Amino acid sequence: MVKFSVLMSLYIKEKPEYFIQCMDSILNQTVKPNQIVIVKDGPLSEELDKILNRYMYLDNSLYTIVKFEKNVGLEGSIS
């Protein structure tokens, strides 16, 4: 079996419905990732935090969260 991680950046202006679609797509693939790394690029909206917490509740061992106190942008958040 192939082992791989998914890396994604999440920030306050992300539409919650798009985040849900993204996560559901990742989790419903034939080959599932061994790890999902989510970079919280600055503070998130309360709704985004709740959604993220719901996914983590289902399988906390799958997720690694990296948090930045302020928004640094996509390039800064993954370098």
List the helices and strands and how they pair.
Elements: E1 5-10, H1 16-27, E2 35-41, H2 46-58, E3 63-68, H3 73-78
Helix pairs in contact: 1-2
Q: How would you sum up this structure, described in words?
A:
The protein is an alpha/beta fold and 79 residues long. Helices cover 39% and strands 24% of the residues. The chain is built from three helices and three strands; from the N terminus they run E-H-E-H-E-H. It has helices at 16-27, 46-58, 73-78; strands spanning 5-10, 35-41, 63-68. It has a three-stranded parallel sheet with strand order 1-2-3. Strand 1, helix 1 and strand 2 form a beta-alpha-beta unit. Helix 1 packs parallel to helix 2 (46-58). The longest helix has 13 residues, at 46-58. The radius of gyration is 12 Å and the shape is globular. The N and C termini lie far apart (28 Å).
What are the defining features of this structure?
3-stranded parallel β-sheet; 79 residues; single chain; 3 helices; alpha/beta
